[in-house]
Amino acid sequence: MFEANYSSVSEFVFLGLSTSRPVQYFLLAFSTVFYVTIVLGNLLVMFAVTFDPHLHSPMYFLLANLSFIDLCFPTITVPKMISDLYSGHKTISFQGCVIQIFVLHILGGTEMVLLTAMALDRYVAICKPLHYLTIMSPRMCLLLLCGAWAIGFIHSVVQLAFVVHLPFCGPNEIDSFYCDLPWFIKLACTDTYRMEFMVTADSGFISMGTFFLLIISYVFILVTIWKRSSGGLCKAFSTLSAHITVVVLFFGPCIFVYMWPFPTVPVDKFLAIFDFMITPILNPAIYTLRNKDMKTAMRRLSSKLLSWRKTS
Predict the structure, then answer these.
(1) What's the pLDDT tens digit per position in 100-150?
(2) Mode of pairing for the β-strands spanning 91-93 and 173-174
(3) How far is Cα 55 from Cα 291, in angstroms, rounded to an integer?
(4) Smaller CB count within 10 Å for the chain: N or C?
């Protein structure tokens, strides 16, 4: 599937973020520290939700799955970037590049739909509290999760279907630290205008559509609460502010990169750093530091781990 009609290109060369060795050393230390923090932070959320019975609710079920995606998303690119910075050998095979694109778009599409499911959860919890456990039943949560992964998979397959048979006959330098469709298409030895348009339309549709759906849902929740009781508006906004922050931080770079796929300045590189290393840290921080139940659960988990180590 990956080798048909490809002529001479067997690997791609990443140009990375900088050619300066001091800057590369800084990026190596920066990315290593942030990646370790991402892994520990998201694993902590997942363990807390899994092993604490007090967190076995729809909201935390969705949050644990968001943390799983936030763990996988940077794992596809950051360890490779760290290895490249350390060794100076910044290449990736053709098949590896295609697989990286495929997995990134599965995870990206899934996270978009999962954030929508979390907005639905907050809507039901705030606007229909008496029916919350009935509507957000375990079966519904599982359906929402499966639907998110299915949509992410379909989105990724559709994206690759546009480009998988493009001919590559020479240029193989990617001006970034990972593979993605805008740079991949640009290296094809053919007119790619229509292909760029199709990829932009598909990615733009799912990112812009989901983003506006989320913003409209949050506005609707706030208006509903304001009509019922203006005093509860501040409390509701405080509850939703964490969700809104996550949505803006995740969708902002995605919309810029795919709605403006080939910018004349390397802004997309730094937006990618934000998406792969900053947002996956902010997600567990925002949801845990502002949540009393989660902080209490983490203290209980830490106590259990400490007592287990003492007994062992």
Answers:
(1) 999 999 999 999 999 899 888 988 888 888 889 899 999 999 999 999 999
(2) unpaired
(3) 11
(4) C
